[in-house]
């Protein structure tokens, strides 16, 4: 079988982007093949590095590492492609000079996209938001499951996907419940009627928190007497949980337990009341009514 080397050479030297009007820039078939091979090899190397680094990590740490590693991947790919093209004789200076006007136009058209990308890089570098973090933005609480250069995706407590453009993390206030550690302190507030045994109330509230599934035993739950309100003595039971994402369910279950325990111990939860005093025109008799709001 005879190999036509001339045809192979013609194929490899075929100019996909011919030189001439591009400031000397040209792009041949063999340059494209070389760039593809370099990307494939780089991908395999990066996968190997990732596998070696994450093999002993816990699942939560792996997700956080992948968020940062994505940015590293993009940076490595850009460097590899530029290095391969430059070493193959591609005059990148000519390409950049010829495309300067195009880049300026694209910059104005895609400035919001660039803001998101720059913000995404910043997020990945300073690790302000990582995969598996529980965050709150604009009264929406969710768990981060993907951080990209343009946007961050979270799943809310309603099991809905919220896509947040990354530049909002630079301009809006964001609560990160789990950045320092997975534990968060939560509370349930309750008022009891004046005349109630405050020490009994404190014991009941604390025991309800201790018995509630999902509440950590350490640090131990505690109760505070918060205020003398208009119609109630206000208490708060404070506790720590490991997963802030499921906090509403734990609070609901704790309120059920508190209501049941108060009934068993004859502790009354007051409700707002209003006294109306009506004076008739025909006599000085005063009619006193008590109505509930």
UniProtKB/TrEMBL annotation:
Record domain Mechanosensitive ion channel MscS: where: 112-178
Q: Could you tell me which InterPro entries the record lists for this protein?
A: LSM_dom_sf (IPR010920), MS_channel_1st (IPR049142), MS_channel_C (IPR049278), MscS-like_channel (IPR052702), MscS_beta-dom_sf (IPR023408), MscS_channel_2nd (IPR006685), MscS_channel_C_sf (IPR011066), MscS_channel_TM-2 (IPR011014)
Q: Which UniProt keywords apply?
A: Cell membrane, Membrane, Transmembrane, Transmembrane helix
Q: Where is the Mechanosensitive ion channel transmembrane helices 2/3 domain?
A: 70-111
Q: How does it sit in the membrane?
A: Multi-pass membrane protein
Q: Which residues cross the membrane?
A: 29-46, 67-86
Domain Mechanosensitive ion channel MscS C-terminal residues, every copy: 190-268
The record's listing under Pfam families reads: MS_channel_1st, MS_channel_2nd, MS_channel_3rd
The record's subcellular location field reads:
Cell membrane
Superkingdom field: Bacteria
Query: Do the record's keywords include ATP-binding?
Result: no
Where is it mainly found? membrane
- Keyword Transmembrane present in the record's keywords: the answer is yes
The record's similarity note reads:
Belongs to the MscS (TC 1.A.23) family.
Task: Specify the protein name.
Answer: Mechanosensitive ion channel-like protein
- Phylogenetic lineage: Bacteria, Pseudomonadati, Bacteroidota, Flavobacteriia, Flavobacteriales
């Amino acid at each position: 079988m005879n190999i036509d080397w001339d045809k192979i050479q013609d194929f490899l030297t075929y100019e996909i982007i011919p030189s001439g009007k591009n400031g000397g820039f040209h792009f041949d078939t063999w340059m494209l093949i070389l760039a593809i091979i370099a990307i494939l090899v780089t991908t395999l190397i990066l996968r190997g590095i990732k596998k070696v680094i994450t093999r002993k990590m816990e699942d939560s740490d792996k997700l956080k590492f992948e968020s940062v590693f994505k940015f590293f991947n993009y940076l490595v790919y850009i460097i590899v492609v530029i290095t391969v093209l430059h070493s193959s004789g591609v005059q990148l200076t000519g390409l950049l000079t010829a495309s300067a006007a195009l880049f300026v136009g694209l910059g104005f058209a895609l400035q919001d996209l660039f803001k998101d990308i720059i913000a995404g890089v910043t997020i990945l570098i300073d690790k302000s938001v990582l995969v598996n973090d529980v965050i709150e933005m604009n009264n929406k609480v969710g768990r981060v499951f993907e951080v990209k250069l343009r946007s961050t995706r979270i799943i809310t407590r309603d099991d809905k996907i919220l896509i947040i453009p990354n530049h909002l993390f630079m301009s809006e206030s964001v609560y990160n419940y789990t950045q320092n550690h997975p534990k968060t302190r939560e509370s349930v507030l309750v008022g009891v009627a004046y005349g109630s045994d405050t020490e009994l109330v404190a014991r009941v509230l604390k025991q309800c928190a201790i018995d509630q599934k999902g509440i950590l035993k350490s640090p131990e739950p505690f109760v505070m007497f918060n205020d003398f309100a208009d119609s109630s003595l206000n208490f708060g039971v404070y506790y720590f949980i490991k997963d802030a994402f499921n906090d509403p369910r734990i609070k609901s279950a704790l309120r059920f337990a508190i209501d049941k325990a108060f009934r068993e111990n004859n502790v009354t939860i007051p409700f707002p009341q209003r006294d109306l005093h009506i004076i008739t025109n025909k006599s000085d008799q005063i009619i006193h009514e008590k109505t509930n709001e």
